[in-house]
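Working notes for the structural subgroup meeting. M.R. asked for a predicted model of this chain before we commit to crystallization trials. I am recording the input and output together here so anyone reviewing the notebook later can reproduce the run.

Input as submitted:
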Amino acid sequence: MSLKTVLGATTALAICAAATTAFADGHATTITIATVNNGDMIRMQGLTEVFNETHPDIIVEWVTLEENVLRQNVTTDIAQGGGQYDVITIGTYEVPIWGANNWLTSLDDLPESYNIDDLLPAIRGGLTVDGTLYASPFYGESSMVMYRTDLMDAAGLEMPDAPSWDFIREAAIAMTDRENDIYGICLRGKPGWGENVAFITATSNSFGARWFDEDWTPQFDSDEWSNTLNFYIDLLNEAGPPGAANNGFNENLALFQQGSCGMWIDATVAASFVTNPNDSEVADRVGFALAPDNGLGRRANWLWAWSLAIPASSDAPEAAMAFINWATGPGYVEIVAEREGWANVPPGTRSSLYENQAYLDAAPFAQMTLDSILSADPTNPTVDPVPYTGVQFVAIPEFAGLATEIGQVFSSALAGLMTAEEALAAAQALAVEEMDAAGY
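Returned structure, recorded in token form:
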């Protein structure tokens, strides 16, 4: 079952016919699941019929959306108690805030077979509020360097396991061959707090920058931020693809799979897609390394988990819980492994996966993924002290709106519509206004 044939639409609605016919007497429960249109979630949607083999009394309706649209729709619905969705796909930014606001249903009633103690501590901790699990991780990720081994060899260079930004820039320039549509590096430029802001913020940590100082004063007017944004823009201008300001995770994934990227620094979860010969033209020529650093003690990698949660407004919490237990419990990886191979199971959530020799043998990226996840510290993300937690985000309610605006500014600078310094001045003004209004 190829991902390309499971579901191609950005927004899709799938209703399981088997459940509909089996419960024509009206006793079926319908749940609506909102999720993001990336490969692992599309695969999950394609396995709905497998879920209904053991849960024929639950009809599953899917709403599959592009990342920025998903965030907006889900946030609006849950804040207003709209009840549009029974299962939502959210991340480590939302869970602590929404859990504390009583917007999510506790998952402490998941059955013993779920094996909560198998969750990686760093991932579980980000989804727990006051000892209560409010979301179950579907996959966990950090970020790392994915690179073309053949292009690196042709450039006469050898990728270190732990590269510096200086090496990345040298290699990107050396691998660029614009006449043949090969670009040394692909990075997120598409605006969005989970798109370009996530990447640039993680990068800024390695340059010694921070969003706020210990008094919550915005820091975009600092030399460290100037160094970060100028390096990022210059690197993509020198060695990136055209239209980089429009490229997010999915666009860069397609470019890499088509052979157009020498390097791509992005989510570790992409490793299974770029090494899948059914989808990637360069599957047998991909290597992996830790995200870069500048020798300051912080790497440019993040920590994230796309997770499934139940809004408090859901009128079908038991059926929603049953689906979450199926999709994020230990048995789901066995289903995917049987149908797609061990290399394609959702990574980064359970210790047992990294103790499974079948997975380790099938996934050359497994250890680098785990090392990247374990090296990210959301409680101590920056070189200098900060009052917030979060690696590629700031765990305060105001962040999503503020970062969305700043993402637009940074994308405009990458597109050449303003200078890096003008973008940072705008970001500083936006941040000062937001923090003052919020009373920090």
